[in-house]
Design the sequence.
């Protein structure tokens, strides 16, 4: 039994090696080119869904067919995330113990800036997501950070997204090798299979958007970040980007990383960058 | 019946008894340690599986209940799973590129 | 605290269509929290929509209704500018009400 398995493994590695040998010349010529990546990424989805307009992608599964679109129109009349937006607004302007507010931590008092996140912070040398920036703001003002997957964080990001609706995603990769590396790591994470079910993010969101996993219609990867945070009927509550990543991992039987670990921030950076130009639609609602 | 066959049969019988012997606590500890080490290696590669963790927990639970046969079985299964996750993480270091939209 | 009730009512050809969203935990009393303890029942029991003191819609609810319930219905009558009164009360004695102009 063991020898058989070993043999299979050996066979696989031999194959992998062969594939590696073949792709080596191409690899050497490979340089990280985010502009070309984003172009190819959009082209792939536009060709896969020729009927959709670019801005339709930010509504995920609700753009996938007529019936779902009708549901979305109805849902938007009375969106389930409204309470979160109101709570977020209240929290956003309420002073911390030291008298300052979230407004003091962000450019333009935090209004209409969601589309610039995540950004690469050259001082910190890493990708800073909106969720991380909010907790850094709290800590700088002597407050305990919020749990990344809970309602408070979702309410704050919901409000910030709401004030930025319709603005095109505008992620910048500064001329800094560390930023380019973070982008590349995010891309690698997105396409890397993991978990016992051997799924990459792209297995669902590139290969099968519009298809069903049980009753769920899978969202296309293009514009998936533009709708964050989301109210999911499945969760009966709001969910942050962190919550989405953690859940995705455990659904493939992988042990999730800690929210806002390098990998998660980098993959958010990658996914947001390739959706540059598509409007912010968050907070979103999903089945 | 040739001598050969008799020896062979004897060997099989022996093997049979060896397997039938109940696993000891020491067997469990060794099997668990091996599985745990493999799972830690997967952790260093940032690719643990939830099923490995469940099997490790099942192994510990069985051992606590004194069922070392079951505990060793579960630990071995956990080790196999952990090794598969290590294999996955290592092979994906290159294979992910095949999935990329270009 | 802002109102727990959002309501929108529109009138067209003698028919008024009403939509409402209510913020409420709607705990059934059968669900356990992360510590394994029962979350006590807490749900809306009575929901009423009134026009000119006359009930146009009433619901007797229980633990089977989802959290933050949404409701949509229409009734004959009502015109633009009329005030629709919405109120609920729950099993713990809490209640809330609001009025909305039909648009």
Sequence:
């Amino acid at each position: 039994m063991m020898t058989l398995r070993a043999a299979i493994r050996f066979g696989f590695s031999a194959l992998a090696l062969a594939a590696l040998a073949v792709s080596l010349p191409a690899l050497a010529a490979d340089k990280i080119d985010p502009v070309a990546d984003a172009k190819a990424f959009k082209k792939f989805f536009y060709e896969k869904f020729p009927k959709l307009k670019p801005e339709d992608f930010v509504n995920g599964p609700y753009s996938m067919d007529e019936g779902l679109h009708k549901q979305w129109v109805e849902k938007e009349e009375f969106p389930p995330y409204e309470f979160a937006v109101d709570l977020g607004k209240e929290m956003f302007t309420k002073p911390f113990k030291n008298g300052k507010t979230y407004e003091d931590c962000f450019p333009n008092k935090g209004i209409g800036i969601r589309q610039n996140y995540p950004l690469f912070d050259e001082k910190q040398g890493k990708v800073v997501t909106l969720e991380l920036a909010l907790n850094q703001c709290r800590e700088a003002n002597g407050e305990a950070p919020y749990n990344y997957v809970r309602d408070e964080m979702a309410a704050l990001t919901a409000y910030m997204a709401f004030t930025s609706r319709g603005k095109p995603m505008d992620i910048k990769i500064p001329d800094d090798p560390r930023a380019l590396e973070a982008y590349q790591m995010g891309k690698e994470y997105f396409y890397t299979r993991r978990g016992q079910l051997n799924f990459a993010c792209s297995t669902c969101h590139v290969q099968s958007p519009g298809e069903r996993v049980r009753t769920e219609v899978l969202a296309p990867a293009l514009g998936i970040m533009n709708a964050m945070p989301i109210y999911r009927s499945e969760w009966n509550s709001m969910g942050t980007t962190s919550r989405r990543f953690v859940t995705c991992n455990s659904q493939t039987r992988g042990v999730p990383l800690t929210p806002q670990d390098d990998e998660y921030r980098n993959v958010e950076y990658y996914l947001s960058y390739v959706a540059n130009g598509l409007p912010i639609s968050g907070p979103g609602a999903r089945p | 019946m040739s001598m050969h066959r008799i020896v062979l049969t004897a060997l099989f019988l022996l093997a049979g008894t060896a397997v039938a012997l109940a696993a000891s606590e020491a067997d469990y500890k060794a099997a668990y340690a091996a599985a745990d080490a493999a799972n830690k290696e997967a952790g260093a590669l940032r690719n643990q599986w939830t099923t490995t963790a469940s099997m490790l927990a099942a192994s510990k639970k069985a051992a606590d209940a004194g069922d070392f046969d079951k505990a060793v079985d579960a630990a071995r299964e956990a080790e196999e799973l952990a090794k598969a996750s290590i294999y996955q993480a290592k092979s994906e270091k290159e294979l992910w590129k095949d999935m990329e939209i270009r | 605290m802002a109102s727990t009730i959002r309501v929108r009512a529109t009138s067209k050809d003698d028919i008024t269509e009403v939509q409402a969203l209510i913020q409420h935990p709607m705990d059934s009393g059968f669900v356990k929290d992360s510590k394994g303890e029962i979350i006590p029942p807490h749900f809306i029991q009575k929901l009423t929509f009134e026009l000119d003191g006359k009930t146009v819609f009433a619901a007797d609810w229980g633990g089977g209704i989802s959290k933050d319930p949404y409701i949509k219905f229409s009734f004959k009558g009502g015109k633009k500018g009329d005030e629709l009164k919405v109120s609920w009360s729950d099993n713990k004695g809490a209640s809330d009400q609001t009025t909305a102009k039909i648009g």
Observations:
- The two ends of chain B are 68 Å apart (CA to CA).
- Chain B has a mean pLDDT of 87.
